[in-house]
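User: Show me a protein chain along with its predicted structure.
Assistant: Here is one chain, sequence first, then structure tokens.
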Amino acid sequence: MAVSHRTIRTPQADLRLSQSSGPGVPLVLIHGSGSSRAVFARQFDSPLAAAHRLIAFDLPGHGESSDARDPATDYTIAGLAQSAAQLLDGLGIDRAVVFGWSLGGHVAIELASLHPAVGGLMLTGAPPVSKGPFGMLRGFHAHWDMLLASKKTYSERDAERFETLCFGDTADPSFRKTILRTDGRLRAAVTRGMLTGKGADQRQVVEQAAFPVAIVNGENDPFVRLGYFETLACGSLWEQCHIISGAGHSPFWERADLFNPLLARFAEAVVAQRVDGTPLASRQAGTG
């Protein structure tokens, strides 16, 4: 399957992206903090790339994308979502399934609140929390390692620890360099924005979504409270909250053999909803 690469200039940053030539509904993959589109190699090297137009891009300040032009604004969740929206428009995408991991999940939720192209949303390692510090405390574990999420400058030891938290002992050798390349101003800006409640109320966006929402987490995620997801009143939840065994924060990387079929099946559900026009929750309840 052919994979092409290009750069799209947006008001926020120059975004480097990769995409496959599959004919199915586009699947937009948004990576987490300190990562890059390379983390989705196991999705591109799978039947997903042949069946769908896989699109993965480096967020501003990450990978091969440029740093943000206006860090104070563009490194907020809302600013990152605006850059993703600009990318969708630049690629001419009017409907897509969006998968967001960790920071990318929060960006994906914000994107869904402002762009009509989001036809389905899958989240991993990204609890949709209410605005402010109390919302974050409900969705995330409070421990010293969380300080890395907001630390501006990483030492080699910081990068090693963050890599372990994200990937366990499965990281590709290139991931450490990617963590160190990341613009540290983003970490501080994102954390500050979430604590002060800027942007959409992410819990509300997910609970009131008119499109299918899938939630897939690793059973050993060190960052998020898995029980929090059970408190969501999400009428468009696809199936149930899936837990992938033998995985931590990045099940799409650690257990791609289990994750990829879930993403493929979810994409089929999104397409089916568009064809028959019946809300997912109604079909699952047998009323559609």
